[in-house]
Amino acid sequence: MPKIVDAEARRQEVVQAVFRIIASDGLERASLREVADEAGLAVGSVRHYFASSDELLAFSFGAVIDRIAGRLEAALSGVEAEPPGSKEQHAAVLNLLGQFLPLDEELAVDACVWMAFRHAARIKPVLAAEAERSHRAVAAVVGRLIMLLSPGEAEAHQTLVAEAERLLATLDGLCMHALLQPEWMTAEMCSDVLAAHLRSLEALPAAH
Amino acid sequence: MPKIVDAEARRQEVVQAVFRIIASDGLERASLREVADEAGLAVGSVRHYFASSDELLAFSFGAVIDRIAGRLEAALSGVEAEPPGSKEQHAAVLNLLGQFLPLDEELAVDACVWMAFRHAARIKPVLAAEAERSHRAVAAVVGRLIMLLSPGEAEAHQTLVAEAERLLATLDGLCMHALLQPEWMTAEMCSDVLAAHLRSLEALPAAH
DNA sequence: GCTGTGGAAGCACGTTCGTGCTAAAAACAA
DNA sequence: TTGTTTTTAGCACGAACGTGCTTCCACAGC
């Protein structure tokens, strides 16, 4: 029998190298040679675990989606564990929404990589399937959150869908601005905007 | 004297070729050779008008910013011409916000190019100055709009700034979703979200 | 008609990329 | 020790990239 290596662990190490390169130098710099250098391997070694560059990128996209979706699911459970309308629930909601923003180093890397892949998926068909999965997963979480925050079941389905899309758009826009214009979009500004959006959600049934 | 051509017009033709390539194939495909082909010229001819690839891209970025800013200024004048609180003003506001979204072919190309350059500016320092100008210009328009829509002058400055950033984030998020997930983010969904956001703006002073 | 200048085109060089393919190295069964 | 198989490393090819430099061409001014 041959030399035995934890193949899955190696793949994750390579994926981590991909993440670091994308976060610091952008997706177009994530070539096989750069990734191999960053991972401390040779090009041939990386290609032993990933048949092609496309497969490496698609796998990395899937990995970052899984990381983000996992964080969101956990935070959503935290929201569901709190009584509706309580201060604790409000804090849990803010925590969930904060998972979208680059508030610390790990979140920033994931947000960077996520944004890069989603935009690349518009052009590269290899990434389209994962982009669709990404959108479904995040929309499901935000949709459930909107349902939780809607006081009555009386709201029209269309209104809830629109509110979910509105929250999703605001979150993606905030994340984008925090990544692209970090001087303007500070953490305080992010929380101010999130607080204002939550107030607008509470005021929604009154305006109905 | 030599053969005389309208140099500025030629530059604009080349920039239009850059726009088309970015919209259809992404920024990384906007190489000198591809741009020259799309414009029906040779590489040397393109380089006669733009000293380097960086200069061409930076100029194209500036061009799309000027186009967008021009549309926004015009639409903002339209809002200011209507009496506050009127139905006509509401329509003018929706028209202004619609200028951000890829609602027709021309708007879609500009939105695509704008997004691509803003994200590229995170990595390429040559584009950083234009990205900053872009942010300033758009933030100024949205800030003025928020001031126009705020009924009293009693609102705290910080609240107005946060509301401007909130509207800006929602618009950018909507634009992003419309570009990346056009099946989900239809034109109707966009207008629903915009309408909901405007309602939340009207309800804001009441919640204060 | 001749000439010089601005516009258009292209060649050549070095670099980087993905990828097919080969060969060494390493670890375990025999 | 020997052999088998996984892992690692590397070479080589064609393609695409930016860019320095040279070459043609058309036309306004003399």
Outline the structure in words.
2 copies of one chain form a homodimer. Chain A has 208 residues and is mainly α. The first copy, chain A, has 2 domains: 1-51, Homeodomain-like (Arc Repressor Mutant, subunit A), CATH 1.10.10; 58-202, Orthogonal Bundle (Tetracycline Repressor, domain 2). In chain A, 74% of the residues lie in helices and 0% in strands. Chain A has helices at 7-25, 32-39, 43-49, 53-80, 87-98, 105-121, 128-149, 157-180, 187-202. The longest helix of chain A is centred in the N-terminal third of the chain and has 28 residues, at 53-80. Chain A is elongated. In chain A, 40% of the residues are buried. The model of chain A has no long low-confidence stretch (mean pLDDT 93). The interface between A and B is large, with 48 and 48 residues. Chain B binds a DNA duplex (30 and 30 nucleotides) through residues 1-5, 7, 10, 31-33, 41-45, 47-49, 52-53.
